[in-house]
Amino acid sequence: MNFQNYMKIEFLSKSQNESFARVVVASFVSQLDPTIEELADIKTAVSEAVTNAIIHGYDNSNEKIVIECKINGNNIEIIIEDFGNGIEDIELARQPLYTSKPELERSGMGFTVMETFMDEVFIKSEKNKGTKIEMRKRIRIRAKENEE
User: Which of 17, 68, 106, 136 is the catalytic position?
Assistant: First the structure.
């Protein structure tokens, strides 16, 4: 294990828990002293990944979502995993505006948003076994203000 700090949580795939996930990850990341913009980017990416797990992974049933966060230096790695439906075609799912649930009026921008706000996004999925999304972001080190 090559990291300086680590946390792991699991919770039910209820839509109310999406905001909980955002807050928990933001609280953990805050030790890196991110800018407000960096923190907002991370919270948005986490929100998209958790929402995808709830809506697409589990079809709104109450199942387990796991989030792990690892800090190494000024890098954060966030892993969000469900054990649901899986993604049949990852490359298709990554296309902007694609949604497997058009009847729900979904925008189809989840992966595009994650890829825009994070430095790296990796998706592993297996049909009927679930999806694991790994997102990484480097937090800029800010210059210390003069103490005079």
Answer: 106
pLDDT tens-digit profile of 83-133? Answer: 999 998 888 777 766 565 555 555 556 788 899 999 999 999 999 999 999
Q: Which CATH number fits domain 5-138: 3.30.565.10, 1.20.120.1770, 3.30.830.10, 2.160.10.10?
A: 3.30.565.10
Contact 107, 88 (CB under 8 A): no
Of the candidates 52, 81, 85, 134, the residue annotated as catalytic is 52
To the query of whether residue 77 is one of the catalytic residues in this protein, the response is no
